[in-house]
Amino acid sequence: MSVNWKKFNRKTHYWGAIICALPILIVIITGVILLLKKDIDWVQPPSARGQGDIPEVSFEQILSLSKSIEQANIQGWSDIDRLDVRPGKGIIKIRAKNQWEIQIDHQTMEVLHVAYRRSDFIESIHDGSFFHDNAKLWIFLPSSLILFVLWVTGLYLFLTTHFAKKKNKRR
Q1: Fewer CB near the last or first residue (10 Å), C or N of the chain?
Q2: To the nearest 10°, the Cα dihedral for 137, 143, 148, 152?
């Protein structure tokens, strides 16, 4: 029994596209948003500029200032996700676990910018972890593998059609 590769490829392409359509659409849309995150302030707050290039504030000063920003709702170090020190820009970004970002001048302790940061949330949708911890491995990874198969079968269909047309033209 011989396998009809054209028919097999078409069915693989057809069903593969249906199976992975929604996860791939999510990845594409969120990927485009993440590519533009530095251009869209709603996604990621723009980085402010501070003075100097050597940080001169202590951790206790950073925590004290962070506690004074109402939106960030910081009570202690356990409420802070990370500190991002940017000596070249003269700032320290304080990221609270509730996704609020505080940017301070790392010499004068002046609050330069306070805004909600959505890029981590969008990234969690992008990689599937927003839906469930196992969604990455059981939905998004298989969808990416199916997309690769679609690419291979689509390339095969394109090339066979292209060469068949070329062959018929010669006749």
Answers
A1: N
A2: 140
Query: Are the C-beta atoms of 79 and 96 separated by less than 8 Å?
Result: yes
Residue range 52-109, pLDDT digits in tens: 888 999 999 999 999 999 999 999 999 999 999 999 999 999 999 999 999 999 999 9
Cross-strand pairs, 94: 83, 102
- Distance of alpha carbon 147 from alpha carbon 79, whole angstroms: 40
**Nearest Cα to Cα of residue 90 among 56, 46, 117, 124:** 56
pTM: 0.75
- Per the structure, the count of domains in the chain is 1
Is residue 170 a part of any domain in this protein? no
Asked if the structure places residue 4 within a domain, the reply is no
1: in domain: no
